[in-house]
Amino acid sequence: MLTAVSLDTDAHLTRARGSQPGPAARRRNARTALNQRTFILAYAAAGNVSAAAQVSGISRAVVYVWRARDSDFATAFADANERAVERLEFEARRRAVEGHEVPVFGSVGAGAGSGAVGSVRKYSDRLLMFLLQSAKPEKYAPRSVPADRPLEDVIAGAEALR
């Protein structure tokens, strides 16, 4: 959640210097807090550090410094990353189960040339398999042949199941 980013920016500086920050430091801290909030929101939406940093007007390197030095920012970053991953999982599930429309191109008529003539709904069996493997690895994870078992025995066992 966005409130996980420390909004008490003066407290960090006060602890570091042992005194109250001046007006310039307070403005810089407020700007940093705003940049952090902007970055966290952009990162949760995009799931990409470079894109979120660009939107926030900061460099990628600053993000990693903040993560190392500010535990509240690190927590907010982890939460935003989880939201970004959930968006990816949602999209993967949608493409696997609901599919997506792909245009079909062809002749649109005599003398008219070619263009879009319809669409086809495509599904992703591969994404579906990844989702199943993630949800129930004990059931859907790929199984490997033990190194100490001859391949002929494995093939014979598979043929016996037919």
Tell me what the structure shows:
The chain is an alpha+beta fold. It has a domain at 2-95. It has 8 helices and 2 strands, in the order H-H-H-H-H-E-E-H-H-H. The protein has helices at 9-17, 23-46, 49-56, 60-69, 71-97, 125-135, 137-140, 151-160; strands at 100-109, 113-122. Strands 1-2 form a two-stranded antiparallel sheet. Helix 2 (23-46) packs across helix 3 (49-56) and helix 2 (23-46) runs parallel beside helix 5. It is flat. The termini are far apart. Mean pLDDT is 83; it is low at 1-17.
How are the elements arranged and paired?
Elements: H1 9-17, H2 23-46, H3 49-56, H4 60-69, H5 71-97, E1 100-109, E2 113-122, H6 125-135, H7 137-140, H8 151-160
Helix pairs in contact: 2-3, 2-5, 4-5, 5-6
List keywords for this structure.
single chain, 162 residues, alpha+beta, two-stranded antiparallel sheet, flat, disordered N terminus
Distance between the termini: 53 Å
Catalogue the unreliable spans: 1-17
Q: Helical amount among residues, as a percent range?
A: 55-70%
Structural class, by secondary structure, is alpha+beta
Q: Give the mean pLDDT.
A: 83
Oligomer: single chain
Compute the CA-based radius of gyration. 26 Å
Note the main sheet: 2 strands, antiparallel
In total, the number of strands is 2
Shape: flat
- Listing every helix as H and every strand as E from the N terminus to the C terminus, the arrangement reads HHHHHEEHHH
Q: How do the strands line up in the largest sheet?
A: 1-2
Strand content: 5-15%
**Number of H/I helices:** 8
